[in-house]
Specification:
Elements lengths: L16 H7 L4 E3 L5 E2 L1 E3 L6 E3 L3 E7 L26 E7 L7 E19 L14 E6 L5 E4 L3 E4 L3 E7 L6 E3 L7 E2 L11 E5 L7 E7 L13 E13 L7 E3 L13 E8 L2 H20 L3 H11 L1 E9 L2 E9 L8
Parallel strand pairs: 1-5, 4-6
Antiparallel strand pairs: 2-6, 3-12, 5-16, 6-15, 7-8, 7-14, 7-16, 9-10, 11-13, 11-15, 14-17, 18-20, 19-20
Helix pairs in contact: 2-3
C-alpha cells in the first residue's frame, strides 16, 4: 500500500509549482500507473489512503493498453474485453461513509500523444449497419484538435470516461456499464475545471478512475471515443450529505467547439428511445455522406466523436423526438 507523500515527493510529481498554488493543493499523492484493476471489486486492497481534501496525480493508461500500438488497424489490434479497462485505484478517502458524498474536482487533464477509435461487431448503436471491425489511430500531438478525413478538425476536449465509487452491491461487477456510484458514465462534460459529486456506498468511498478520452460526442454512438493515455490531477473531498445520484458542474459552456457558425441537426421520432436515436444517427450519416463526401463508416465515427444525441421532446403521447447535432465549425470554412 502506498503511503501519504505530500510535498516530500514534489520532485517526483509532474505538477508544476504554479499548479499547486493555483489550485490550493495541500497534499499531492502519486499513484503507480501499474496498479490497475479491470472491474469493480470491493475486496480489492486500496492502493492509496488519502485525507479528505487531498489531491491525487495519475498517469492513466488508455483502454486497450498493450493491446494495440499507434498505426495499428483492426487486423493488428488484439482487444481483450476482460482486461480492456485499466482503472486506477481503489483510493480510500478517510472519513467517507455510506450515505456521504464524494466531491471530485478535475484539476488538470493532459492527453497522451495518440489515441484510437474502433467500430466493433455487435456493439455500438448501429451494429447491423456496420458489421465489419475497424480500428484507426489518431495523432494528438497538435494539442488542439484531431484531424479527420475531409479536412474536419475536432477540438481536443479531454475527460475521464470512468470515475466512480464502488456501488457496494454487487461486490464484483464489470467495468463497462455505469452504476449508482458513477463508474463508466462517459460524460464528456467532465473536462478540466469541472466538479463531479458521487454518492458513497462503501467505507472509504473506494474511488477508481480511468478510461481516458481526448474527444467524444454525447452518446459515443460507435462504441468508442478517442481512447488515449492521460495525465490527470483530481482532488477528493468528503461531504457529509446524501445525494440521489451523480451530479456535475462545468466551468463554462458545454461545447468545446466554436458555435458561431451554428449546428446541423437530425431528428429521430419514434415511440422507442433507441430506435429514435438510430433514426437520428442514420439521418446524420446520410447528410455527412451527401454533403461532405465522407463514406458511411467515416460519418458514423464522426457522429461518435463530435455528434451530440439529445432528447428534444419526451412528453407527447409516448413518442420520443431524439436529436443528433454537429457543430458546423468542425468542417472546413468552404463547406
Amino acid at each position: 500500500m502506498l503511503g501519504v507523500h505530500g510535498e516530500r515527493v514534489a520532485t517526483k510529481c509532474q505538477v508544476a509549482t504554479r499548479s499547486w498554488q493555483r489550485y490550493g493543493i495541500r497534499v499531492l499523492h502519486e499513484i503507480d500507473p501499474a496498479l490497475v484493476h479491470h472491474g469493480w471489486d470491493n475486496g480489492l486492497e486500496p492502493v492509496l489512503r488519502v485525507a479528505s481534501g487531498d489531491t491525487v496525480a495519475y498517469d492513466l493508461r488508455m483502454a486497450g493498453h498493450g493491446q494495440l500500438v499507434e498505426g495499428d488497424d483492426a487486423e493488428r489490434a488484439r482487444l481483450d474485453f476482460e482486461t480492456l479497462y485499466h482503472l486506477a485505484g481503489p483510493v480510500w478517502v478517510e472519513g467517507a461513509r455510506p450515505g456521504d458524498t464524494l466531491r471530485v474536482e478535475v484539476l488538470e487533464l493532459t492527453p497522451g500523444p495518440w489515441g484510437w477509435v474502433a467500430v466493433l461487431p455487435d456493439l455500438g448503436l448501429l451494429p447491423d449497419d456496420f458489421p465489419d471491425p475497424w480500428v484507426g489511430t489518431f495523432d494528438l500531438r497538435d494539442g488542439e484538435a484531431i484531424a479527420l478525413p475531409g479536412g474536419i478538425r475536432i477540438p481536443i476536449a479531454s475527460f475521464l470516461g470512468t470515475l466512480g465509487t464502488h456501488p457496494d452491491e454487487p461486490a464484483q461487477a464489470s467495468a463497462f456499464p455505469p452504476h449508482k456510484g458513477g463508474g463508466n458514465v462517459d460524460t464528456r462534460h467532465l473536462t478540466a475545471g469541472s466538479t463531479l459529486w458521487l454518492p458513497v456506498w462503501c467505507e472509504g468511498a473506494l474511488f477508481s478512475c480511468g478510461d481516458p478520452h481526448a474527444a467524444q460526442g454525447d452518446g459515443e454512438v460507435c462504441v468508442t471515443a478517442v481512447e488515449c493515455d492521460m495525465r490527470a490531477t483530481l482532488r477528493l473531498t468528503v461531504e457529509h450529505r446524501s445525494i440521489p445520484g451523480p451530479r456535475f458542474q462545468t466551468p463554462g459552456p458545454l461545447l468545446s467547439a466554436e458555435e458561431s457558425r451554428g449546428h446541423f441537426g437530425a431528428m429521430g421520432i419514434h415511440e422507442n428511445l433507441h430506435e429514435g436515436a438510430r433514426i437520428a444517427v442514420r439521418s446524420a450519416i446520410d447528410w455527412l455522406v451527401q454533403e461532405h463526401g465522407l463514406d458511411a463508416r467515416e460519418a458514423y465515427v464522426l457522429c461518435s466523436l463530435a455528434g451530440d444525441l439529445k432528447i428534444l421532446e419526451i412528453v407527447d403521447s409516448g413518442v420520443w423526438n431524439v436529436g443528433l447535432t454537429l457543430p458546423l465549425s468542425i468542417f472546413p470554412a468552404s463547406q
